[in-house]
């Protein structure tokens, strides 16, 4: 069974040439993120991912997390790996120096995070949730809460969770019923149950800091009556040491399709005296604060899709190189050859390779825009980049994770019958990838957010600016000679036209017939993802060709042009059909009476 090898060559190319990490390093607070430092971080992260995390992935899946008497024991090696992970400073990579973080840009953290997720999806979920909790406390917590919790969370000594979902309140958070009763000392007592809490209980860190949505006695109904509370597993004394056990317990963990080494807890708050909690920010603004965590988590989950594409591709590629079966097509009596010789296997591998590179490029570009949106000294530049990030987060989350499932499934197909056998590892990637399309809102929820909050609300203004940037690439593509660039230009231009047509239709239709618009939401998200990925791939091909024309014979550049050509022929070519599904498909979605399903 092959182990993960970090694709550092492509990561470096995307960071430098597409995401503009050198320009990010000029932003206030990012000055230390020089190319030399970024290279050193990538090399060290790759070593940790390959040597520490990847070897734990398969046995961790087989052993799984184990619940007993309200406690969870992690698979062998996980506790030791997490301590090494925290001691090495990886939990602090992108956090603010004020709280002990290293303050590196989000775009660098994105590349490193992709490695953790490819090497060991289950392990990577613990720091993902902690990062979201840290961001919520930094932006919304009181000085006292920050002083009490942030340094230990940034250092990884303590971990964090998000507690939203309840048995009767899934995506509909207006139905949250967990209670928060105020106490004379300013604290609250929390009573209720939360489900699907990732790393809600484990033995890797000495304390777990839960961020919990609940209602105070005077709260109005609906989402406007939700508040956010910090509920520690162990109380924290005035000197920072741990005190008594809080009344917050894991009463069970879920038995899941995948990510077996990631404990998904059912948490009971207040079964005895009540769990002690502390209000974050103001009452009844909890959902607003939770969305801080959720947006960070949505991008992080999108990276899980990128990571699934890469890991499934590597395993399928390595298997195809080694698996000998049949002679070359068209050769009679010849020797048997590795299956990578066969055209359909090559088609599948190119699908996997191109989608991994396209999702990576888009995610890193969005991460760099986030850095500009939060750090650039010009307010107009910050505003423009934030609008781009807001538009693309649902795409990075939705399209990348759907791509991860598709690519992992193709990986099983490359293996043939052996892909259905757990021992090859291909099946685990497919099982693990599936949850990413559900975490932090299903693909349908991402798509509805995209067409409603991110497009219709502003009349499609940001989408139009993105399409204008895409069209500006046409002149550069037109200057290139040869069949590769002719095909890339033709497919990309048609894809942008299809995107513009579908986007205009959605904006015009949303107010008049929201059901019809919503019927095309997921096809539109897929369309935007495919074309935006093609945009970054076309940029990459132009840069690669310029390197080739300048005399650089690195085969990486030739491969980039060829991979972009494949993406144009086999992925961008789907754009027209998706646009038709958006603009003409609502009738078929909505026409059938419910009793005929």
- Which strand-content bin applies to the residues? 5-15%
Span from first to last CA?
Answer: 44 Å
CATH architecture descriptor of the domain at 290-589:
Up-down Bundle
What percentage of residues falls in helices of 4 or more residues?
55-70%
What is the alpha-carbon Rg in Å?
A: 24 Å
CATH level 1 name of the domain at 290-589: Mainly Alpha
Major β-sheet profile: 8 strands, mixed
Average pLDDT confidence is 96
Number of helices: 20
Number of strands: 14
Question: What name does the CATH topology of the domain at 290-589 carry?
Answer: Butyryl-CoA Dehydrogenase, subunit A, domain 3
Structural class: alpha+beta
Q: CATH superfamily of the domain at 290-589, called what?
A: Butyryl-CoA Dehydrogenase, subunit A, domain 3
Q: Which runs of at least 5 residues are low in confidence (pLDDT < 50)?
A: none
What is the 3D shape?
Answer: globular
Quick structural gist:
The protein contains 20 helices and 14 strands.
Structure characterization notes:
With 597 residues, this protein is α+β, with helices and mostly antiparallel strands. The chain has a domain at 290-589: Butyryl-CoA Dehydrogenase, subunit A, domain 3, CATH 1.20.140. It contains 20 helices and 14 strands. The strands form four sheets. Strands 3, 4, 5, 6, 7, 10, 11 and 12 form an eight-stranded mixed sheet that branches. Strand 13 and strand 14 form a beta hairpin. Helix 8 runs parallel beside helix 10 (379-415), helix 9 (343-375) crosses helix 18 and helix 15 (483-510) packs parallel to helix 19. The longest helix has 37 residues, at 286-322. It is globular. The two termini are 44 Å apart.
